[in-house]
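Hi P.,

Sorry for the delay on this. The queue was packed all week, but I finally got your sequence through. Input first:
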Amino acid sequence: MQLDDLYRRVIMDHYKNPRNRGTMDADSVTINLNNPTCGDRISLQLQLEDGKVKQAKYTGEGCSISMSSASMMTEAVKGKSLDEALALADNFSSFIKGESVEFDYEDIEALSGVSKFPARIKCATLAWNALRKGIEQDN
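Then the structure:
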């Protein structure tokens, strides 16, 4: 199996079996963003406690890239400090532009091919931009 096939399977797994999709009843920060270019939209909820991302959930609709990226992002940031979560968002921005970055949550690396398609970068970064806004809004 080629690496591209493996990455495609990881992306489709997150798209078809999303992690952390849904809403929270608990007190949370909610960020709504959309990508008017292609119609992707996300509503991200973050439960931030004691300087950490205690929980992250999302709803929305869009292409497989934007929705799988949201699934991966919510998995990657749970339990992280706000500084660690912001650093992850910065690393993801660099990564999606083609720079070499490694992640503890390896599924994210499946999105490496997006850098070859500049029009899809906004799809992949939508959830991460929502994360950044949510943390900044809470501070």
